[in-house]
Amino acid sequence: MQTYLQRLRDGYTKNGMDPKVRRDSFDDFLTMKTIGTKRVWTFGNPLGANASPVCMGGHSRELVRNLCVRVDALTLAELDAVTDVLDCSKQEFVVEALSAAIAKAMHGIDEQGLAHLFDERIKDRLEKAELSFQPSADGSHEWLYFRGELMKNKEWERHKGVVEGVKQLIEGEKAQSK
Which is it for the CA torsion 138, 139, 142, 143, positive or negative? Predict the structure, then answer.
């Protein structure tokens, strides 16, 4: 008669899995949780850079623009495979990559003493986009304004309802499985 551990090892082998994967899964859990916390701390939300298009699109459709980028078939195939494996959309992936690339570029611009050029250009671009920053009432941070109106997701209640619905669905499934 086969022992439990033997059956478990055989199951892993039949499925092409390494038993070490399960042993290391707690490390993965900790990594996921710390990254999740870091994203909230960095971006102020769990959506990361993707919260901006959601918020801006919820405020005014004209604040979300299409970035037309042509790529070769190989790059597109790789992007499709990566987003399939990561279970995210190309939109999510590209916005996160673009946000990180811009942050890296801004750091390099600053390190090379070119911040004054960036500041001139971003000032012009923000004015053309009719975006501005104003301090919060308590002065602890700045708010983003579009055409003099505080930027807020006008779709927030609907978005919040969707999130709540998903949470309730998950909680209901958990309760039924007990």
Answer: positive
Q: pLDDT grade, residue 93 (50/70/90)?
A: very high
Q: Tell me how far apart the alpha carbons of residues 136 and 47 are, in angstroms, rounded to a whole number.
A: 23
Handedness of CA 7, 12, 13, 19 (dihedral sign): negative
Min mean pLDDT across 47-51, 80-84, 159-163 is at 159-163
Using alpha carbons, select from 75, 52, 74 the residue that is nearest to residue 64. Answer: 52
Which of the two residues, 131 and 19, has the higher pLDDT score? 131
State both tokens at 63: 């604040």
pLDDT tens digits along 123-174: 999 999 999 999 888 888 888 899 998 887 766 666 667 667 766 776 776 6
Find all residues with CB under 8 Å of 22, minimum gap 6, and list them: 12
pTM of full prediction above 0.85: no
